[in-house]
Amino acid sequence: MQSPILKTLLSFVGIPLALFGPILGASMAYWMHNLGPVTPKKLDVSFWGVSDPLEDLKTEDAKIIVVATSNGANLENLRIGQAVLTNNGLSPILPSEQYEPVRISSKAPWKIVNVVSSDKGVALSWTKVDDYNFVSEAALLNPSDNVFLTLYFTKPGPYTKKTDEDKPILSWKARIANLDEISNSPDPFKKLENITWLLIFHDGPSTVFLVGLFLLYLFISLILLRMSGLFSKSSLIAYGSVLTMATINLCAAEAGATYTFGMFPFGNSPDNWVNIPPIALNGFAFVGLFIYSRKSSP
């Protein structure tokens, strides 16, 4: 005969699976059907804007004078941009499938001085076609591979300060088998700034960790509830106690997964500070139930 704790624990897993399992299965079947016989390629690019290094270094405290030249001519206007190319598809992009590798083009008056791939991620070699175009080598890009890029721009004429209206405008093109186009992804930092309520995102190992931690917390909660006598009988208090603790456990597990797998794991960031209350509340609930169970026991 199953114990009440095990029975309740299994119900928290079994009931959602019974309710949402068929819906999830149908959604996966429909999604696989839409993919077709050949999995489409998906290549995304995020361009995070530019900075003005000449202006940034021109401070009274630093007392630095920087002069940039190209082919003997001074570069009065210099901008540095950051971008990342990501294979967000489900299949690799092979060199043999790249009939025209990735090309970066800039609109006049901004010229591309150089394109450099970071050692982090896939390091591509870039070749200058003309003042406004650079093309990459054909290379293997597996799913989730990233190509981190630093781009250098200049334009003729006297120096002008960086403004939103006067900045390099780029286009990204490639002719790759089963790839419609290179999609422009929004700046992730601006996307976070525009979120006014709640952001929860977990995938892969993070989801497994979250579910496992939630079940562990729930198991401890059920033991403490039974020790305290709040889970000994079928009543509204018992059901309310289980539901309350399960909610706190889930929030704490999500916060723990964010700490471990988030953008700034175990770092000093606003994202981590926001996740402290659920973990603290979960700990206080455990301690409170334990003290209550000791006082209520004969």
What is the beta-strand fraction?
15-25%
Measured as a percent range, the helix fraction is: 25-40%
Number of strands: 11
Name of the CATH class of the largest domain: Mainly Beta
What's the gist of this structure?
By secondary structure, the chain is of the alpha+beta class.
What would you note in describing this structure?
The chain is elongated. The chain has helices spanning 4-35, 53-56, 188-193, 205-228, 236-261, 270-274, 276-296; strands at residues 43-51, 69-70, 73-74, 77-87, 98-106, 111-121, 126-130, 133-136, 146-155, 170-176, 182-184. Residues 265-270 have low confidence and may be disordered. The protein has 2 domains: 43-186, Immunoglobulin-like; 198-296. Helices cover 40% and strands 24% of the residues. It has 7 helices and 11 strands. A hairpin with a 2-residue loop joins strand 7 (126-130) and strand 8 (133-136). With 298 residues, it is an alpha+beta fold. The longest helix has 32 residues, at 4-35. The strands form 3 sheets. It has a 5-stranded mixed sheet with strand order 6-9-4-1-11. The protein has a 4-stranded antiparallel sheet with strand order 7-8-5-10, with no helix packed on it.
